[in-house]
Amino acid sequence: MRPGKNAQTIRKENLLLILENILCADGIVSRAQLAQKTGLTRATVSRLVDELIDLDILDELDPVRSTIGRPSAPLVAKSGTFCVVGIEVALQYISVVVTDLSGAELYKVLQPINARLSDPKAILHSCAEMLDGWKTPVGVRIVSVVIAIPGLVSNAKHRIVTAPNLGWSDIKITDFFVSHKHPKTPITVVNEADASAYSMLYKNPGQIGGSSDFLYLSAGVGVGAALIYEGRLFSGQHGWAGEIGHMCVDTGGPKCSCGSNGCLEQYAGLDAMLTRANLPLDESVDPLIEQMVRGNTQARKTVDLCAKSLGTTIANVLNLLDLNTVVMGGHFSQLFDYMEVILMSELKYRLLSSRWSSITVKPGQHGTFTAAQGACLLGFERFLNHPELWVKP
User: Fold this and answer.
1) pTM value?
2) Which long-range contacts (CB under 8 A, 24 or more apart) does 166-173 make?
């Protein structure tokens, strides 16, 4: 049963409505235009806009004259006030990005590491040190730190259930991540694939990009996925949805680290691919690509098997979920040009809807900062949906 709405609830909904219309706009939005779009009175719109300006959420620029009518004062997200820190812990690096409400990057740094079977205390201490290396501008407030890791995260968003490739299990993030410059900032942890998907979902904080319905695939030693539907992340009952790397490709296939066998990870995970190509384990897919380009037959067969296995798995997922767009992240984006023909052939062969609708499969574009950028945008989604957090720096 839902409670009735009081004046405070209605005010909150109207504030969110005003903010959404401003952040999602591609062009100029003025107070008068907001009244037309929302159906609220001009007096109500002006009162809500003034409140958002006073909270340092919005900025009202100098009037701009259009071809018709009086000059309009554009309303935009205010820069240099609220920001979110996004951090990714990958096996081979830590990346940190700080983004403000306008979408401007205030800080960006990457540090190479070897986090395979690592000590969480040491790695998370390095994350905090990288953040503390940023000289925070006067007036800027960090509203949250969002840490992305390759593993399962609890619904409470502060505990890592397991991150097998890192060697971490049952880790409370606040026990190890301690920022001396920002000790009271809220900290949450999210799955790396989920965070990466947000880098494709949003162009800027609060502004949806080109697609609000897609499957995002993340690739490293493990293979993960995130489902975005109607602009929202589907995380499942426990928050663990997206473990596509452990969908079965072949019931007679090789043993997987999860305890099962024939999982996609054994055909598309980085360690498995390098091993199959008779190459030493590396933290990059570059040696495999180099050997394939040189004409190494086993390297070519390895990539072809990856493409076929991905095509089969993606078709299974899309047959169930009825989506038209797939984004390939991690080393899949680097291998995409070499896999595209086989992957798309297998996908169209097995996908029921391919006879009536077109399927778009494309590589991601953000490289090693994908998950950290997405973590910032995810953090802003939570912030913007909760006006009680909008306290002036």
Assistant:
1) 0.91
2) 166/89, 166/91, 166/115, 166/116, 166/117, 166/118, 166/120, 166/123, 167/116, 167/117, 167/118, 168/118, 168/120, 171/120, 173/124, 173/147
